[in-house]
Amino acid sequence: MPQIAQLADTWSSQVFWLLVFFGLTFFIIGKFMVPKVMDTVAQRDGQIASDLAAAKSARDAADEQEEAWRVKENENRAAAQAIVSKAKDEAAAKSEKKLAAAQKRIDKKLADAELRIGEARTAALTEVESVAVEAAQDIVKTLAGVKVTKPTATKAVKEQLAHG
Amino acid sequence: MAVETAKVDPMKQFAIEPIAGTQGWEIAGFNIAFTNSAMWMLITTVVLFVFVLGGMKRELVPGRWQMMVETFTGFIDNMLEANIGKEGRKYVPYVFSLFMFILIANLIGLLPLGLFGIHPFTFTSHFTVTGVLAIISFSIVLIVGFWKHGLHFFSLFVPHGTPLPMVPVIAPIEFISFMVRPFSLALRLFVAMMAGHVLLKVLSSFVIDGTNAGAGFGALVGLPSFVLMIGISALEILVAGIQAYVFALLTSLYINDAEHLH
Known about the structure:
A: 164 residues; B: 7 helices; 4 strands
């Protein structure tokens, strides 16, 4: 086993060169280069963290703006609806008024017409009555030879008309 | 001739061969020859340097390479944070160096570079190397522990809620288990790496010797051994990662003890 057989001859050289090269490794690579590598990693981690934070705050701001927009949009929609319903109400009121006026005119016309019809009918009835009275007088005079006064005839005719 | 060259010595791969400075390179009488082991430490360091350098483009949107490096640093960072907590961050340079150094050493040692005449040397299969790494980790635990808690650090040996009469029994056991840590840390890695490499070499000797012994032996012994080698090579890649991870994980657990006691 050379590790033991050569121990006496080589241990000092082994230890010396190991200390030299491991020392170089430690001081140049371990102490100088590795911290820089790790610093880069830390920098990158910091960058990523800050980028993430920036993205998050940007998203929050966007959410906020969207919310504000939504509120405004809702307000606008409500205002528009109010205007529409007001216009509708106004139009309805106007048309109702117009309708009422028209109805009134029509009613008046109807009433006039009815009145005229009523008058015409009364006139006609009176005429019929007088004709009937005269006819009754004539009929009675001719048939019975009795002269009936006008008021009696009128009364009888009226009675008959009321019954008939 | 065939017998001599075909012989595979499973231990030869662990032999340290000097490349330069066998004589004269000394510090206070200790030889510091530049060996193949040191050579592969150098290669490991350079590979790790190039790997991490590729991750230093510092782009906000990382490429594949940068992503890979960041995955490793993030992995170590998470492990330390999970085991130690916020205070674990300051150990990232050390644990990252440790983990990557061992991982790349293990993986490079497995490369089939022998095909091109280069013999990879897995220096993590030497307990001198793993021992030094373990001692460094253990020293950090001791230094941090005594620095943060002073002599209070010794309360580590008395777990919470131990009844007073049990303290004289528990404390030595805890102490021994504490002192065994660097050895278990060093031996685990060393043994795992060495065992895998020896196994691969033994199987490869089966393949070579079996084939040399004739077509029948080749089919009967060589072929199954070869198939087994493929599987074990895959397993060794896994072990290379796991051992590096275990070394780093245990180091972070021990540091956690030092930071927070129990």
